[in-house]
UniProtKB/TrEMBL annotation:
Residues noted as binding [4Fe-4S] cluster in the record, renumbered to the chain: C309, C312, C355, E362
Entries under Pfam families matching the protein: GcpE (PF04551), GcpE_C (PF26540)
UniProt pathway: Isoprenoid biosynthesis; isopentenyl diphosphate biosynthesis via DXP pathway; isopentenyl diphosphate from 1-deoxy-D-xylulose 5-phosphate: step 5/6
Domain annotation IspG C-terminal: ranges: 306-407
Record-linked InterPro entries: Dihydropteroate_synth-like_sf (IPR011005), IspG_bac (IPR016425), IspG_bac-typ (IPR004588), IspG_C (IPR058579), IspG_TIM (IPR058578), NO2/SO3_Rdtase_4Fe4S_sf (IPR045854)
Protein name: 4-hydroxy-3-methylbut-2-en-1-yl diphosphate synthase (flavodoxin)
Naturally occurring in which organism (per UniProt): Orrella daihaiensis
EC number: 1.17.7.3
Length: 420
């Protein structure tokens, strides 16, 4: 009897509405049949228009398809137009999302040029006061979004959850025959807050396909539970992110652990990796991590992947490590230009291996690969192109010669003329 093997790969994406985030001719689709979108956020003082525009450009070139900017003061709101104009002059058409909190209703109303220059608003209902004041402030922001035809992300956050809603749900929970624990009630309150505010936004006139939801928490298992529940109870596009993920390896691992589970289950339409940069660190790292999560899971391709062995006692030389790092950096740095010159290059695999144990095999499986000599091995490095051994490099210039081979391969295989 033939055994039916289980399917490999992520589950089909959950069906959702599709929101459009637009600036000029650039249209970023979120949800529906669109690929998962990568987002990031600036950490400059928004009132410093030049510094902020420069960082937005850096994030966009790294691959952020929407960039969020804090709009928290009149000075920041006034700077939005200058930021947008500076980006347009630099040829950077990435849509900007304004991040609003306590005074967003005032800023959007008092600075209509800011409201128009932004492509999307992020609203946190938990930071807009209480009772009627919260309702009025929320309604005011939605009215501005309707007037300017802007989509809105309603972002509920663990640290700023509507306390009136939470208190009411805690009271109701105590009336249950078997009450839930407090953590479960808080998770439920996040979902209820997001959906109820989305429904109210629609009642106020915002189209259902102009709404994206997020429920941010800082613990992996809570995030997974919240988004599973949220995805089962609505069809709005969902923005994923582990808030306050942390710094360095911890932030990368925690974000990956949470988002990979959800993405594998078909949940999530746009993502942001909320890393705390090391002092002087590169803000673009969170964009790279988001791309690598999606690419390693087979959901999207952004840049050629470099496969490299971890090294062992057979590879005391650092040549293969340096070559893998050089090639990976070179490929990523070239992608802003190569996206238009060499369509499809982002799906290429390059293997840089350190010895003969797995080196030749991995190199054959890659589009192009090299097996460098390990400790005590013959000082020769066979190169494989499309599974065929083509040349063996020797001497002191193996790294430089291999990089030339990679460049020539890209030009030959992915150049526009190759398909004509």
């Amino acid at each position: 009897m033939t055994q039916c093997l289980p399917a490999v790969g992520p589950a089909a994406r959950r069906p959702t509405r599709q929101a459009k985030v637009v600036w000029g001719d650039t249209v970023v689709r979120v949800g529906g049949d669109a690929p998962v979108v990568v987002q990031s956020m600036t950490n400059t003082d928004t009132a410093d228009a030049i510094a902020t525009a420069i960082q937005v450009k850096e994030l966009a070139l790294a691959g952020s398809e929407i960039v969020r900017i804090t709009v928290n003061t009149p000075e920041a709101a006034q700077a939005i137009v200058a930021i947008r104009e500076q980006l347009d002059r630099m040829g950077v058409s990435v849509p900007l999302c304004g991040d609003f909190h306590f005074n967003g209703h005032k800023l959007l109303t008092q600075f209509p040029e800011c409201a128009q220059a932004l492509s999307k608003y992020r609203i946190n209902p938990g930071n807009m006061g209480g009772g009627k004041r919260r309702d009025d402030n929320f309604a005011q922001m939605i009215e501005v979004a309707c007037r300017h035809n802007k989509p809105v992300r309603i972002g509920v956050n663990w640290g700023s959850l509507d306390q009136e809603l939470l208190a009411r749900m805690m009271d109701e929970n105590q009336q249950r025959a078997v009450p839930l624990d407090a953590q479960a009630v808080m998770r439920d309150a996040l979902v209820v807050s997001a959906i109820s505010n989305a429904e109210r936004a629609q009642q106020l006139g915002l189209p259902g396909d102009a709404i994206v939801l997020s429920c941010k928490v800082s613990h992996v298992q809570d995030l997974i539970a919240v988004y599973r529940d949220l995805s089962a109870r609505c069809d709005y596009p969902l923005h994923l992110g582990l808030t306050e993920a942390g710094m360095g390896t911890k932030g990368v691992v925690a974000s990956t652990a949470a988002l990979a589970v959800l993405l594998q289950e078909g949940i999530g339409d746009t993502i942001r990796i909320s890393l705390t940069p090391e002092p002087g660190g590169d803000r673009c790292r969170e964009v790279v991590v988001a791309q690598e999560i999606l690419q390693t899971m087979g959901l999207r391709a952004f840049t050629p992947m470099v496969i490299a062995c971890p090294g062992c006692g057979r590879t005391t030389s650092t040549v293969f490590q340096e070559l893998a790092d050089d090639i990976q950096r070179y490929l990523r740095e070239q992608m802003p230009v190569w996206r238009t010159q060499y369509p499809g290059v982002e799906s290429m695999n390059v293997a840089v291996m350190g010895c003969v144990v797995n080196g030749p095999g991995e190199s054959r499986h890659a589009d192009i690969g090299i097996s460098l000599p390990g400790t005590g091995e013959v000082p020769a490095a066979p190169v494989y192109v499309d599974g065929v051994r083509t040349v063996t490099l020797k001497g002191d210039r193996i790294a430089e010669e291999f990089q030339v081979i990679v460049q020539n391969y890209i030009e030959k295989r992915y150049g526009r003329q190759s398909g004509q």
